[in-house]
Automatic annotation (TrEMBL), chain A:
Coiled-coil segments: none
Region named Disordered: 1-20
Localization in the cell: Cell membrane
Protein name: High-affinity branched-chain amino acid ABC transporter (LivM)
Phylogenetic classification of the source organism: Bacteria, Bacillati, Actinomycetota, Actinomycetes, Micromonosporales
Length: 383, 316
């Protein structure tokens, strides 16, 4: 058989060459700008993001970007909550290095709490307004993160993955099999929208125009970005880094690993719950089919594809996983004139594979992580 | 909580649980083999399995068999079964090899971080299942009657069908065969060597890539056999049925101790039984939930599963 294959393959013989550091990438260019210029660029980017619903009015490029098969503004809203979820999952997977395959569970907890408190279908008949449910929903999502994390965070990576997967599955099973409480397939209807009226008395958050929803989503995304960025640069973020790199070493150096892993879980769950709240408010309807497990895997794919451990990467990844399938909707291919939409997931899968093969660190790799990985490779194969 | 129902149906639940467990066990072997050697959850394994179910049904379709055809004679049924098993095993095995070649090998060559493998596996899984979905118009495909559903053994209210006996026997036999292969043959020694220390094995002249391909092939063969048993038991297949079953099978592998061949068997049968008793007690909707709860409880006390991780440490 194979055991006499001398010399061993090239792969085993020589370590792959270390990636060369790019000295004049766009990010160092940005970091070296004087602060007024940086602020100016940031403000311009944010303003452009808020103006995205009007992309269709941009001549030439606009019509290429917008989705033809679905409402562009609704797509933008979808993109915004996918980005939110990617940012939250990035904290768990990218920062703390905990593989969470059941992230949709927290999304579900958020959405269901809103439904239970506000929908007229709910057993509780509390009829809260959407805004009132937010603090309760995110608090319960966070709590569910702690409850899931407490018994399981002592497990190593892959075991944690399966348990989190089980958690999401469990929530879905509870939802499908309690027709009285979480109402299974029937679901909750008439979940109230966010408050506010136009001058003429029509509700601001209506079904006709998703732009206000998108703006709310975008605002939340920006708030979450700032919060997470500051967390990452704090004592908590450094603890996450230490845990991700070497849990035992971190523990020995006095990092309270279980505590900070729980924090990562709780913050991830918080953001996931927030995504669920937004989703429920927009959709007005929540049932058990909303929370399929494939959804969390999709978000995970977004985080890793974008570049895990990096906020810009999570944003790009989250945006791509939401945008690509929607963009392919209603596009006919030039050869057989069938709707490409049915092939969207196939193409999506291919894109994921290709991205990971050609950029294993993700599209926008985290610099800190890249350096860590370089270090580790040196350890493995000293020159 | 339906205790009297559980006690009354204990026999039938045990029998169907063991039959379901046989599928889990064979399916779980694929996860466990790959994990034992590469420390990697092969997410595309559920699609390897689904390819097996379709390969088997399409082969039978060539002979004009579909869900409406009459039951073939005993000799014919044995022939069709053997053919179906062979085709499904080969197609699943080749799919597994292809996944390894396309989704994993390029990453290994580039020394990618572990998460990247998970993501390409998810990508590969999406591509395969959605391609099948588009080609079959997202419809289920029915299974021709093969084995009589008349029970061959009775114990009180417990009926055992020929299919159930066949499933359990086949799972046990394949397990013994695989154990022998990994434990006693030269190729198996290569597998254990790579599982123990990939670099050490490479230095000793083991062709790592070939061993890894072999491991994927073995897992695929087992999944193919499980696929045939599954279609015979359930009666149809669909492009997206692999995912949930895959999660259950993976749970079984973790339950027994992932990376441990006997663990997959123990975990598979245990999960089949526990799930069935659970659905007897709480209702069928809770079948999968019971399995997960048991998994969490067991992992809290035995963090590496019932039998522990041990592909590399198996007896020499």
């Amino acid at each position: 058989m194979t055991t006499v294959d001398v010399p061993p393959t090239a792969e085993a013989q020589t370590p792959a060459p270390l990636p060369r550091r790019k000295r004049n990438g766009i990010r160092s260019w940005f970091a070296n700008l004087p602060w007024p210029a940086r602020t100016g660029i940031l403000v311009a980017v944010v303003a452009a993001a808020y103006l995205l619903p009007y992309t269709a009015d941009v001549p030439v490029i606009g019509p290429q970007i917008i989705t033809t098969g679905t409402d562009w503004r609704t797509t933008l809203f979808t993109v915004s909550y996918y980005i939110l979820l990617s940012l939250g999952l990035n904290v768990v997977v990218g920062y703390a290095g905990l593989l969470d395959l059941g992230y949709v569970g927290f999304f579900a907890v958020g959405a269901y709490t809103v439904s239970l408190l506000s929908s007229p279908d709910s057993l509780w008949h509390t009829h809260w307004a959407w805004l009132e449910t937010i603090p309760v929903a995110v608090a319960i999502a966070m709590l569910s993160g702690l409850i899931l994390g407490w018994p399981t965070l002592r497990l190593r990576g892959d075991y944690l993955a399966i348990v989190t997967l089980g958690f999401a599955e469990l929530i879905k099973i509870i939802a499908t099999s309690t027709p009285g409480f979480l109402r299974g397939d029937t679901g909750f209807t008439r979940i109230p929208a966010p408050p506010g009226h136009h001058a003429d008395g029509t509700p601001l958050f209506g079904v006709r125009d998703s732009t206000p929803y998108y703006w709310v989503g975008l605002t939340l995304v920006i708030v979450v970005i700032f919060a997470i960025r500051n967390l990452d640069r704090s004592r908590v973020g450094r603890s996450w880094l230490a845990i991700r790199e070497d849990e035992e070493a971190a523990e020995v150096m006095g990092v309270r690993t279980v505590k900070f892993k729980l924090w990562a879980f709780a913050i991830g769950a918080f953001v996931g719950g927030l995504g669920g709240v937004m989703f429920a408010g927009f959709q007005g309807f929540v049932n058990s089919n909303t929370f399929v497990l494939q959804f969390s895997i999709l978000v995970l794919a977004g985080v890793v594809m974008g570049g895990s451990g990096n906020i810009a990467g999570a944003i790009l990844g989250g945006a791509l996983i939401a945008y690509i399938p929607e963009r392919l909707r209603g596009v006919t291919d030039p050869i057989s004139h069938t709707d490409l939409f049915q092939w969207r997931f196939v193409m999506f899968g291919l894109v994921i594979i290709l991205v990971m093969i050609f950029r294993p660190q993700g599209l926008i790799p985290s610099r800190r992580r890249a350096m860590e990985l370089r270090d580790r490779r040196k350890e493995a194969a000293p020159e | 909580m339906n205790f009297s129902g559980l006690i009354h149906d204990f026999g039938p639940l045990t029998v169907t649980g063991l039959a379901q467990g046989a599928i889990y066990a064979l399916f779980a072997l694929g996860y466990t083999l790959v994990y034992g050697v590469l420390r990697l959850i092969n997410f595309a394994h559920s699609e390897v399995f689904i390819m097996g179910t379709f390969a088997c049904l399409i082969t039978w379709g060539f002979f004009g068999l579909d869900q409406n055809s009459a039951q073939p004679s005993v000799g014919g049924a044995i022939g069709y079964l053997l053919l179906g098993l062979a085709v499904a095993a080969v197609v699943s095995g080749l799919t597994a090899l292809l996944v390894e070649l396309v989704a994993y090998r390029p990453l290994r060559r580039r020394n990618a971080p572990p998460l990247a493998f998970l993501i390409t596996a998810i990508g590969a899984s999406t591509v395969i299942s959605e391609t099948i979905g588009v080609l079959t118009h997202h419809n289920p495909r029915g299974v021709p009657p093969m084995i009589s559903t008349k029970p061959v053994v009775h114990f009180g209210n417990t009926d055992i069908t020929g299919l159930q006996i066949l499933m359990v026997v086949l799972a046990l036999a394949l397990m013994v065969l695989l154990e022998w292969f990994v434990g006693r043959t030269r190729l198996g020694r290569g597998i254990r060597a790579v599982a123990q220390s990939p670099d050490g094995a490479a230095l000793m002249g083991v062709n790592k890539n070939r061993v890894i391909s072999l491991v994927f092939l073995l897992g695929g063969l087992m999944a193919g056999v499980a696929a045939v048993m599954y279609v015979l038991k359930i009666g149809d297949t669909r492009y997206d049925q692999g995912f949930t079953l895959g999660i259950q099978a993976f749970t079984a592998a973790v339950l027994g101790g992932i990376g441990n061949l006997r663990g997959a068997l123990v975990g598979g049968f245990l999960l089949g039984l526990v799930g069935n008793y659970g659905s007897g007690l709480f209702g069928t909707a809770w079948h999968d939930a019971v399995g997960f709860v048991i998994l969490v409880v067991i992992l809290m006390f035995r963090p590496t599963g019932l039998l522990g991780e041990a592909l590399g440490k198996a007896r020499a």
